[in-house]
Amino acid sequence: MNNTNKQGVDTRRRSLLKASATGAIATGVTGTFALNPMIDAIAAELPSVDLRTGTGSWHPTTCQGCTSWCAKQVYVMDGRAIKVRGNHHSKIHDTASCPRQHLNLQQVYDPDRLKTPMIRTNPNKGHDQDPQFQPISWDKAMDLLADKIMALREKNETHKYALLRGRYSLCNDLLYSKMTAMIGSPNNISHSSICAEAHKMGPYYMDGNWGYMQYDVKNTKYILSFGADPIASNRQVSFYSSEWGNTLDRAKVVVVDPRLSASAAKAHKWIPIETGTDSALALAIAHHALVKGLWHKPFVGDFSDGKNRFVAGKEVDPSTFTDAHAYGLVKWWNLALKDYTPEWAADVAGLNANDIRQIAEEMGAAAPAVQVWTARGAVMQTRGTYTSMACHALNGLFGGVDNEGGVFPYNKTPLNKNFPDASDYMDAIAKKGKKHEKIDQRGRLELPAMKKGKSGKGVVTANVASSINAADPYEIEVMLAYFNNFAFSAPDTKQWEQALSKVGFMAHITTNISEFSWFADLLLPANHHMFEKWGVLNAAGNGVSHISLQKPSIERLYDTRQDESEVPYLLAQKLAEKGFDLPWRYINEQLLDPETGKPAANIDEFPELLAKYVTAPLWGKDGGKYGDQLSGWDELKQKGVWNSHEYKPKARWSKFKTETHKFEFYSKTLEKALGKHAKKHHVDVNEVIEACEYTGYDQVAFVPNYQAPVRDGDAKAFPLLLVDQKSRLNLEGRSANSPWYYEFKDVDPGDLADEDTAKINPIDGEKLGLKTGDKIRLVSTVGSIECTVALWEGIRPGSVAKCYGQGHWAYGRAASKEFGKQARGGNNNTIIPNRFDRFSGASAFYGHIRIRIEKV
Ligand SMILES: Nc1nc2c(c(=O)[nH]1)N[C@H]1C(S)=C(S)[C@@H](COP(=O)(O)OP(=O)(O)OC[C@H]3O[C@@H](n4cnc5c(=O)[nH]c(N)nc54)[C@H](O)[C@@H]3O)O[C@H]1N2
Ligand SMILES: Nc1nc2c(c(=O)[nH]1)N[C@H]1C(S)=C(S)[C@@H](COP(=O)(O)OP(=O)(O)OC[C@H]3O[C@@H](n4cnc5c(=O)[nH]c(N)nc54)[C@H](O)[C@@H]3O)O[C@H]1N2
Ligand code: SF4
Ligand SMILES: [Mo]
């Protein structure tokens, strides 16, 4: 794509328009350049560099188009971003990049961006209520927000304030936690549980890693992917897609996915599983590997006499087995695994038993250089905790955990992610307010949300809407939200529209008016994260972690502000003016420049100060202990990236942060966590399991076991299953107003350009009398959407695959047919019923969605 010329022309035109707007010229320009003083005035407006040869400069920053958080460089000429590429200082991805990076240019220069703060003038809220936003100044906007917060303080009801966070950088602690605490609310709510929280359940409860993983693709011999599509989605797409060709040469790649993903299309084998049944496959692979004696003995352990006693359906005497770095293999076998034969799984998951046996045998032969990827698709489901455990168990069984060619956790990166303690800046009102139950009901009997083993430590984002609708535990009167669009991105959009209509006063910090903004009282225009904001991000892949900066590189286009730094700064100032000065004092007494020990002199200095504060341990004298030794902040600013040392394989073996310090096939860690949750509610563990809609009781609850997916709706009325997917061009929910998104939509296998496509198997097409291009309606138990059908062999019969991302009705002129009125395409979340994997608090986006197709 040649942006330079295209954008160069635009730049020239913009300058001319600017000149004409000032009244310097009224008519067109002709040849007499040097002689005409007016023309000279225009020339002064022209860029000072030659746009054709390109004499601008590259500036480091970070893309947050997806959770890869690639380090970037932006080419800037005359204050305008022209081109984006990977930052060669990153040891993860070097200059490599995914194609989505370019869409960021269309985002920052989106003509539909929110350009000034706005206030709602229509007091009625609803999908069909035009908010009638009117421009106001930042001063007035912040004054109004501060008034609403002060009113809560006067009533001693500060818990009715909530801060909602979507995408964020590691500079978020002030706005997200500290301000919320000082205001006096327990309600800082992150989007994590609509993102990928269930993924973390297997790794945490089996090897103590609450986090994502990196995959040592350069040394692997076998990749088994449950839904992950790393050349299109997942994390570190830039790195993995640049390496994938070599990976396919050196390793066997098997992709398990109900649809033929981009990665499945390139893989050696595609397993088109029925959605919701991945754990059956994973468990049967484990079963067969044990029967055949193929587990990795140096990691797992072995029978003391070396004789394999695993026979299908038969219990084994645990005393005959000696553990190595893993714990509880025999318990797992006796409690559950012994019955999960390949034939059983083939039946449950709609597969071929020979395929299952073959995978197990090949993995055994490739062990320990094997890696199992687990994507949202497999685990963001009702009962997804157990799928996450079943899939991750294979990493342990074949010795891939922390091993060359296997999977690693992220490397250590010392950062000041948590800002200084703010408890001295919380007065009696704040302390009392913060003690209330959180609005998402986390920690209740039926919502354990057990992040890192602690009941109620995780978030239940999607439950915020239900709680507000039920006014249980209370109502939300003042809401501040940023970089999120839950009225579009969370399941069952209708319940969000209803809930947001009930919030007394809501302010949204956003680059664009979105579906969430539609319900706002106040719109606060945000800087674009990649070109106009200071931030800090982390990523891992290729054996290293990097920390990279977001740094403003272009002239700020409109009257916008940075969400995580300038907005709380302005708010604290306003609250101080109104007599509540604790947040303002906190900012000036605690958030100090690590070099000078001084606070920011003004708002302009503040955003950089925060980034400097967060990264201080990296560029300080001890940074070299963990990775690159930098000479100081200026070097980090100039490079934009710090890299950790390489991961040392086996670093955690027998030092796992689990109860036994081993890799737990029988999770003592989960046993303890569930036990504590049960005790808190004065019930036994089986009552917790019952309340949380799982089906494995007693000790079975602590081992990977098969639990059939809950399905929503009657199979006769809704005979098909929805398979949601990300588009290769999705920048999460934010690509929708970029024309390139539609133009190149057919990069998604099976999709049609300029359409929102539901893909069905030709067998189903024939049954339903549908052909490619027909307009259809997808109907579920909670809603319906309209889109276009495409017949495609890449989806298993009985399922419908459709990209998430379209169906915006309020995101700009390209995103909707008519802004505020009519959507372009259909939003999958309108037909996804609100359900949870309750142990993690994660929302279910897969496995439970029964639908039918109607012709339009
Ligand atoms: N059906 C379905 N639903 C999904 C997913 C899926 O695959 N399928 N994916 C899920 C996942 S993994 C996630 S993480 C969530 C994400 O969901 P959210 O956290 O809600 O994020 P987005 O939908 O990307 O919306 C971000 C919003 O922030 C605003 N914005 C855009 N750019 C900027 C910026 O630079 N700065 C600021 N301050 N604001 C900006 C815009 O209003 C935009 O709508 O969605 C989830 N929802
Ligand atoms: N292109 C692109 N990449 C992204 C993002 C983006 O918006 N666009 N967002 C980023 C974010 S926020 C996140 S959290 C990560 C998430 O990355 P992943 O965790 O990899 O998740 P998704 O891509 O959402 O996973 C959906 C996949 O699961 C498949 N699937 C659906 N149902 C099932 C099932 O029952 N079993 C199996 N095995 N597969 C199933 C779908 O076909 C699809 O391929 O991606 C990041 N990368
Ligand atoms: S969209 Fe994701 S993979 Fe692509 S450049 Fe941005 S962060 Fe990296
Ligand atoms: Mo996500």
Automatic annotation (TrEMBL):
InterPro entries cross-referenced by the UniProt entry: Arr_molybdopterin_subunit (IPR053686), Asp_de-COase-like_dom_sf (IPR009010), MopB_CT_Tetrathionate (IPR037946), MoPterin_dinucl-bd_dom (IPR006657), Mopterin_OxRdtase (IPR006656), Mopterin_OxRdtase_4Fe-4S_dom (IPR006963), Prok_Mopterin_Oxidored (IPR050612), TAT_signal (IPR006311)
Cofactor(s), names only, from the UniProt record: Mo-bis(molybdopterin guanine dinucleotide)
SUPFAM superfamilies reported for this sequence: ADC-like, Formate dehydrogenase/DMSO reductase, domains 1-3
Pfam families for the chain: Molybdop_Fe4S4, Molybdopterin, Molydop_binding
Cleavable signal peptide: none
GO molecular function: 4 iron, 4 sulfur cluster binding; metal ion binding; molybdopterin cofactor binding; oxidoreductase activity
SMART domains membership: Molybdop_Fe4S4
Annotated ranges, domain 4Fe-4S Mo/W bis-MGD-type: 56-112
Family, as annotated: Belongs to the prokaryotic molybdopterin-containing oxidoreductase family.
Entry protein name: Dehydrogenase
Organism: Ferrimonas aestuarii
Lineage: Bacteria, Pseudomonadati, Pseudomonadota, Gammaproteobacteria, Alteromonadales
